[in-house]
Amino acid sequence: DTAVSQTPKYLVTQMGNDKSIKCEQNLGHDTMYWYKQDSKKFLKIMFSYNNKELIINETVPNRFSPKSPDKAHLNLHINSLELGDSAVYFCASSQGRGSLSEQFFGPGTRLTVL
Amino acid sequence: AQKVTQAQTEISVVEKEDVTLDCVYETRDTTYYLFWYKQPPSGELVFLIRRNSFDEQNEISGRYSWNFQKSTSSFNFTITASQVVDSAVYFCALRGSFGETSGSRLTFGEGTQLTVNP
Known about the structure:
heterodimer, A: mainly beta, B: 4-stranded antiparallel beta sheet, globular
């Protein structure tokens, strides 16, 4: 059983398009995250939701909009895609926002903007 | 502000050698948590270990061991008798506890690419 799943795994699109990445976790966790890993492998947090409430919103262009319909899902919508958006996007989840529990990561979505 | 530094960008060893991956962190929090993750060529992030700031005991898990030294703000990771399957990017990460918002985010180091050659 997949704990944190993301769809799609690969996404290739043209500049200017709008696309969404979906994330679902079946761990019963109440906190979910989006991270971006750039071409140099650097991982940085973008957003975090706790019980559907946005609690972390890093300096990310407002073309990126997370949406959490329920505790088990956190989707990432990106408008007007740019070349620099090409990266691997990881979703993660944990139980509690300040607790000791580790974050479990999804398999990642490799986004390529042409 | 939190910061994690992994000074070794790439390490290459021959199978069966021991290898240590360095991690140095900065935080103002008195309570914090340190992690190591492995990212194999397949791309997923695999959790390896969590350590809280009150527990300075070293930990061993099979061929893996971790040395946490609060005095030097380091949390180093050693692989004994390395194997080709250990080839991956290894990330050290820090999560603070000051304020709930800060407590959630993981601050990652830049990663160390380990290549184990046969």
